[in-house]
Amino acid sequence: MRLERFERIMGGVCAPNDFLASGVSCGIKDGEKLDLALVYSETPSVAAGVFTTNNVKAAPVLLTRERVPGSAVRTVVINSGCANALTGKKGMEDAAEMVRTVEDLLGLVEGQALVCSTGHISEYLPMENVVKGIERGVSELSPGGNSDAAKAIMTTDTYPKELAVEIEIGGEMVRLGAMAKGSGMIHPGMATLISIITTDMPLVLDEAQDLLKKAVEWSFNRISVDGAQSTNDTVLMLANGAALTDDYEVSGEEKELFFEALCWLTGNLAMALVKDGEGAAKHIRIVVNGAVDDRSAVEAARAIANSNLVKSAFHGEIPGWGRIAAAAGSADIEFDQDNLDIYIGENKVVSGGEVSSYDSGVIARMLARDEIEITVDLGSGGGSAYFLTTDLSEKYIKINASEKS
Fold first, then answer.
1. Where would I find the beta strands (DSSP E) of 138-272?
2. Which domains does the chain have, with CATH numbers?
3. Which end of the chain is more exposed for a tag (fewer CB within 10 A), N or C?
């Protein structure tokens, strides 16, 4: 994605006009680690959302889905360290108390607050601490609170992930900001993470929802670390329109520019999530060409990205073309194996469904790199897609073997 049409700026979710944020410690995590974040718009926002497609959904997902899409949302409260999933009636009551508390403290009406949670499954929130944390978070809302907010939503992430860009529309600077968390339990089937996107672009409800869904599809839905889908996946976008006057009519070209910036934002955050994958030693880009259509290419790329055999091969720095071919063949799509070509980098290792001659030294050097690209050409049409994934390491197993849920 080109950067010439817009400029990267500082500020994360606070970069757009009239957005404030905070991140505080409320005792969900051990010690003084930040574990509760607030993002707040000083003016009502159109809110769009994309949520997990997992049949097991956490309480905050169920509550927020009832309010999104929404036309007058003002704030999102996010806690980390506890997913508030598999918590039954009490979990729903706790999620409702979180939004009610922040609405009361900010003088909002019911329905103007959203909630997200991330962390351990089947644990109850320490609500006395959470309420005190929300009180402190509201008191600390500021235009510079974005970095603390990005830190407060982290779980096994090793660093906070935030970005912001600005574009010129109608002679004014329109800004987009975002933060995201995600390291393990990343698998396409919605968005694979918690991410909050803010913008001062004026958007109508259906338009905001459509743009977000499309941006998520080619960014957050094209990454996989472990093939495990979360119960809490949520991406929210708040658009308060503060950058332009109410009577300004945004042109089709300007909307396209906004969408390009949104895709750049989500695409780069998605890449950051993969690079911070739990225990990952290698980052792998899978390109599938020659599919019957784009959907088929996505399915083939997803099957390869989620194959533990493929991921283990790359961790062991072996070519694994048989595993790649088998994974592509396991996808529910049509292609003729006699047309199958596979490349590691620019080096063809399978040609027309058979192993081809290759320089083993060159391939070994390619596989020793931290970043590897494989290309699979199905030879069946013009469909293409890409996926980002990681290797499967001993460190990943150790991290997840020690988790309680």
1. 161-169, 172-181, 194-199, 223-224, 234-239
2. 7-275 (3.60.70.12), 283-401 (3.10.20.340)
3. C
